[in-house]
Amino acid sequence: MRKQIAAANWKMNKSLEEGKSLLEEILSSVESVPSNHEVVFAVPYPYLYPLQSIVEGKNNIFLSAQNCHHKTAGAFTGEVAVDMIASIGLKFCVVGHSERREYFAESNAVLADKVNLCLTKEITPIFCCGEPLDIREAGAQNQYVEQQLQESLFHLDEVAIQKVVIAYEPIWAIGTGKTASSAQAQEMHAHIRSVLSKKYGTEVAAEISILYGGSVKGANAVELFSQPDVDGGLVGGASLVAQEFIQIIKALQ
Ligand code: PEP
Question: What is the Å distance from ligand 1's center to 236 Cα?
Answer without folding.
Answer: 4
